[in-house]
Specification:
By secondary structure, the protein is α+β, with helices and mostly antiparallel strands. The chain folds into two domains: 8-147, Jelly Rolls; 157-237, Orthogonal Bundle (Arc Repressor Mutant, subunit A), CATH 1.10.10.10. 42% of the residues lie in helices and 23% in strands. The chain has helices at 13-21, 30-38, 94-99, 120-129, 133-155, 159-174, 190-196, 201-213, 229-237, and strands at residues 41-45, 50-52, 60-66, 69-74, 80-86, 91-92, 106-109, 113-119, 176-177, 182-185, 217-220, 223-226. The strands form three sheets. A four-stranded antiparallel beta sheet has the order 1-8-3-6. Strand 9 and strand 10 (182-185) form a beta hairpin. Helix 1 crosses helix 2 and helix 2 packs antiparallel against helix 4 (120-129). The radius of gyration is 20 Å and the shape is elongated. It starts with 12 loop residues before the first helix and ends in a 5-residue tail after the last helix.
């Protein structure tokens, strides 16, 4: 069992909590995390702040202490496609920083946020001191590949199918059974969801209306009630039932 130590007095409580919760070094000792946290550059930023720019050298990686951020790609037509939503305890650009490469996408604060930036050398030092941490890093990289594949598959669908896929996945993760069906929280504002699904709010609203008219869902604000799970899953998969 990992020995824990009291939170160091010179580290902010929210910063310590985020570093301790980060999945990249979940197996690391508290002493090692203290070194990471004390060496981090912590800043409070307003919504819309650019945290990483695609193509720029990745000399450090970030950790969301509080608030939310998003990872997105900016197409040649100016359209933004969100690949990942980040919240407290989530890292970003760690793989790019370790590889000594460039940021593969843009990262932006989606809300007012507190961000901790860590030198890539500090993570290398952690891996050398505690090699077992590498297993968590490899696992995270594998999950990111799977998530990226899912994003590509989603963007290949039409918008109603993208919405169906998203709602179905949310239902699997956190759906609550009710007398009417599975109740699901969308988890983000509709404008943010539209960007995450590679569309615009108006088209997103029409997609929700289509799913409602077909008897698949009911929508009340940010809550969706799934009325026909099987049909929703079929639509979200991109294959129609024959």
């Amino acid at each position: 069992m990992r020995r824990t130590m009291p939170k160091p007095k010179d580290i902010r409580p929210d910063v310590w909590a985020a570093f301790r919760a980060c999945r990249l070094w979940r197996a690391a000792s508290d002493e090692a995390i203290v070194q990471l946290a004390t060496g981090a550059r912590v800043s409070d930023v307003p919504r819309g702040t650019t945290l990483a720019t695609e193509g720029e050298p990745a000399r450090e990686f970030g950790l969301i202490v509080s608030g939310k951020a998003r990872v997105f790609y900016l197409g040649a037509d100016g359209k933004q496609i969100t690949f990942e939503a980040l919240e407290s305890g989530d890292p970003f650009a760690a793989v790019a920083a370790l590889a000594g490469g460039r940021y593969p996408a843009h990262v932006e604060a989606a809300t007012p946020a507190t961000i901790a930036c860590v030198r890539s050398e500090a993570l290398y030092e952690l891996l050398e001191a505690e090699p077992g941490v590498a297993r968590g890093l490899i696992g995270d990289l594998s999950n990111r590949v799977v998530n990226f594949t899912s994003v590509v598959q989603t963007l290949a669908l039409d918008v109603p199918s993208r919405v169906a896929r998203y709602v179905f996945q949310r239902a699997l993760q956190s759906g609550t059974p009710t007398a009417q069906g599975l109740e699901v929280e969308l988890g983000m504002k509709k404008g943010e969801l539209a960007m995450a699904l590679g569309t615009v709010p108006e088209t997103l609203s029409r997609a929700f209306a289509k799913l409602r008219d077909e008897g698949l869902i009911e929508l009340h604000g940010g809550t969706v009630t799934v009325l026909d799970v099987r049909a929703l899953a079929s639509l979200g998969s991109g294959y129609s039932e024959g």
